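Worked example 2:
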Amino acid sequence: MAAADADAAEVERLYELGERLSSAKDKSEHAADYEAIIAAVKGQSVKAKQLAALLIPRFFRSFPALATRAMSAMFDLVEMEELAIRIQAIRGFPLLGKDTEFVSKIADILGQLLTSEENVERDAVHKALMSLIRQDVKNSLQPLFKHVESGSEIREKIICFLRDKRGASSSKFLNYFVKQIVPAFEEIPEEKKLDLLKTIAASSPYAAAQDSRQLLPSIVQLLKKYMPGKKVEDINHNYVECLLYTFHHLAHKTPNTTNSLCGYKIVTGQPSDRLGEDFSEHYKDFTERLTGTEETVRAATKRLTQGMADFNKAISSAKTGEEKTKIKSDQQTATRTMRSYNNILIMTQPLHMKSPSFMGDKKITLSWMEQPKKPASTVAGVKRSQPATNGNGPASKKGRGGMQNQLVNRAFEGLSHGGRGSGRGRGRGGRGRGWGGYH
């Protein structure tokens, strides 16, 4: 009973300190009260620590001289074993982030907390990060991108978070993501590049015109790298599909930017049209790469089509369940590859024109995304549905049928979910996470 009484007394004391600070007209005169709240983090009472996690952010801005001590206390709280304490501290971080000085550090810590195995805690981290990003996009995203670029152990968690949380900040996200990642693309581990390109592609429909104008040169640069100027044995179809999709969506927002990049003659009446300059060499180079890519893809498609017929025979003749599972997995991979090839052909065909139309409002379904189901034919007297050309069927002879596609479904699905099982560890003081500078 003595311990319970002491616990209740400590909680009551913190309530009184909080009420006194709330009612004070000049809170700076009550620094001792705030210091006492911070000190409660080192105490024994779990409920008192939880209350301190609520009160420290509430009065944080009133005591700038105590900011570092308050931040250190909050970092201690998110390292504690009690889930309720951690969640309360996480929820309070966005209030601390209203002071720009601490935004990057808070975002860094929240990013590391994405590894939590507790659903309720992970949800709190997501909400806190989104709140922080809305307050300060630049300083919130930069530390997250550093983890992505460095290939740290939390990289996958951060990519999944950014993929899922698009909303109002999507165009800004695409701009602090592509501008930082694309220039360093070659330095990113090979096994991580596709995840990044998928994220960029899925984000591209949400880019603003100004962002698109800034991002297109980097995308064109990568396209030229992965689209051969002549027919070759095969291409990295996943890369090319992602990049072409991104190119179409960005170019649709700012078509005249492609004049100087690809030699297209697109007139918008703006000085940026640069119609008086000769970019014919760019056009020749870009269209040659389109042709080389198409020839390569058509040949690969023919080979793949010939092999597709063998899968059902192989499944029938398989002797074990394990063999059948392996064959079915290979069949699914081949199907996705075929979708990717078809999507590439759909997207390259309109780009041969001097003044092409870019796909922005007529979206295709990327090969790794869930494919929309074709509606069943209806009874007589009711209009039949037109067959969908979403990258699963052959492109029309004129290259236009494939442009009549359904809107992208679940635009951020398909990204690798590797690394989800990692635990996060709870070393005291946070030094395992690099938080030691605040202790």
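The chain is about 55% helix and 0% strand. Residues 207-372+385-413 form one domain.
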